[in-house]
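User: Could you go from structure to sequence for me? I need the amino acid at each position, not a summary. Structure tokens:
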């Protein structure tokens, strides 16, 4: 069944990690992010490598290594992060992605489209800079 809004553990880790990285003026490593988010350091590392690959982060290996933003925080939206991890959010007429409906009128009406659009609009309107505590 198709999902209207899906906030996976990976997305939650990615969003929270990116805010922590944005709040830190120096590099922050996976161990510190894991402590602060109560998440697996291995899962965090895997997710952050996706963000490095898409040029949202830079990384440095080694004992003094860690992650830093590759772009200014005011240019990275929550939507950028979400879609980097989960793929593009698509608006679909059918919430379960069926080519044909057995009914002449969808029992969900336009609710699922509205919810998905509102979710996408929210993510696109929020930037990492909105969550800085400086």
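Assistant: Here is the amino acid at each position, in order:
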């Amino acid at each position: 069944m198709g999902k209207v809004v899906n906030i996976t553990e990976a997305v939650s880790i990615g969003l929270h990690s990116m805010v922590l990285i944005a709040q830190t003026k120096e590099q922050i490593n996976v161990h510190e992010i894991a402590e602060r988010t109560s998440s697996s350091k291995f899962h965090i590392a895997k997710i952050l490598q996706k963000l490095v690959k898409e040029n949202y982060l830079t990384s440095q290996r080694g004992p003094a290594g860690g992650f830093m933003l590759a772009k200014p925080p005011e240019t990275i939206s929550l939507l950028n992060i979400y879609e980097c991890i989960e793929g593009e959010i698509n608006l679909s007429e059918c919430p379960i992605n069926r080519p044909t409906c057995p009914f002449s009128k969808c029992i969900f009406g336009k609710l699922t489209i509205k919810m998905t659009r509102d979710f996408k609009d929210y993510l696109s309107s929020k930037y990492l800079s909105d969550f800085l505590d400086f």
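One structural detail worth keeping in mind: The CA atoms of residues 32 and 41 lie 9 Å apart.
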